[in-house]
Amino acid sequence: MSDVPRQQDQAPSEAPAAPAAAVAPDPRLLVREKGLAGYWEDLTRRIRGGELGSIPVVIGVILIAVIFEAQTGSFLTPRNLSNIAIYIAGPGIMAVGIVLVLLLGEIDLSIGSMAGLSAALWAVLSVTHGIDDLLAILLALVAGAVVGTIHGFFFAKIGVPAFVVTLAGFLGWSGVQIWVMGDEGTINTPRDSLVRDFRDFYFSDIAAAYSLAALITGGYLLALWRQERRRQAAALPTRPTGEILLRGGLVAAAAFLTAYTLNQHRGLPLALVIFLGVLLLVDFVVRRTTYGRQIFAVGGNAEAARRAGINVERVRLTVFTIAGTLAAFGGLFIAAQSGGAAKNLGSGNLLMNVIAAAVIGGTSLFGGRGWVWSALLGTLVIQSITTGLNLMNMSSEIQYMITGAVLLIAVVLDSISRRTQRTAGRT
Predict the structure, then answer these.
(1) Which domains are present in the chain?
(2) DSSP helix/strand/coil, 185
């Protein structure tokens, strides 16, 4: 038998590996390595890519405060800032619900009438019929949830456009509100009512405001630490300790300065505590749960979400239920601020201000992009403009024109941002 060399003897012992093609690293991964230069590069890249985030609205809030303080000399007083903190709670809670609806790429035109209806139900049950105040509040919130579920059913299950459903609700629930109020044009809030506390109750002990500031700072640092642990476990770039301390320091400075300012007046308002609690809870649901990711997915592309196994109808229905509940809750705050329930509560410019707050704060009208804290930022902008113009004794028509201009600017920025993102290939 002939001697045939084996194949492994013929093959070279070690073939040199082909050089790997050079791949340009993602610039987002270089930020941690370049220090301040890397952060500046990352910021400019985001702006060029249309990722403006909250930068415009934060700058806007600062400019508003500076301009009105220069014009009035009393805008940044503890009393005025405390009043702003109270009056943003009602519209702000309603704006949180609108943020969720906008993330779906839809709109809810009925929130003003739902706010008025909930206030009317609470007032009639508690004041007129003597039902326990807390029970009356809970029933008003349940009514808001039911109304939102009805809207969500017609939209998600029947297929009626949300614009039409909620427009019909805006008209219909306003009629129900007037019917519930009956012959009473206004029902004043009793002195011992829990609803009255939404406006008048303060935690007067200075430790309350400082404790809340410490809790916010500690919670923020803990969230950053947990995020960095997850990134480290996934072998992703992590923030240096100096950056984490800097971020925590900025949050601490803002929180403790706010606490100090509030303590110079009457202390920490209950309304602000409840509003922040709603923001934190809904933000956690949106950013940290599967359900929250499903909201973004449905708003980004409903058909793709459905093919991925997401129950689109359920997401849409529950979002409108949550929005209805928050609208009812916000309506109780507005009733407290206005002194009671009335047949016209929820009418006027409340609906437009709440929607404008969500958009001005940075939530896209086109769905799939935004964050819950835009409700706080947007409401703060609108209330600051209203308060500042009131201090200057400006007429209401001037307030409407300025608020409308700010809303238009926000929508223009949103449109430009989306177009820039498409150009940059990020959508």
Answers:
(1) 55-202+290-423 (1.10.3470), 205-265 (no CATH)
(2) coil
